Amino acid sequence: MGATSSPEAKLAELGITIPEVVPPLAAYQPTARTGNLVFTAGQLPARDGEMIAVGKLGAEVSEEQGYECARQCALNALAAVKAEIGSLDGVVRVVKAVVFVASTADFTAQPKVANGASDLLGEVFGDAGKHARSAVGVTVLPLDVPVEVEIVVEVS
Q: What is the CATH number of the domain that holds 85?
């Protein structure tokens, strides 16, 4: 990676600790690996065992709270990837992020909320964190959380 720091070093520099993997809520596993791709299950905005917000964007949840939820979801997705491959230094690049935003019918800032996930991935991986993305408005998400994020990464 040349002069740039590794993802693990970048996390330390940013003061970000990768949390424990959030246990699945149903019959699935946190990641699935095929070849050099790791797909994460949808990750919820859990921090220290609790959801950091509940409700919908455009109603009970502000855009800023939604951004923070997306960031936490992405961090939880990185925890799942790290548990699968041992170190985030093994990530070659982030390929795709899908961000689901539970929102009212008139809320249209899903991309701004999704930036919470995208910004974190960029901070940690630099150019390798640039990814394709979908930001999708939905009626409701599990446990009434406002945001759910899944990622796909290429690993070495």
A: 3.30.1330.40
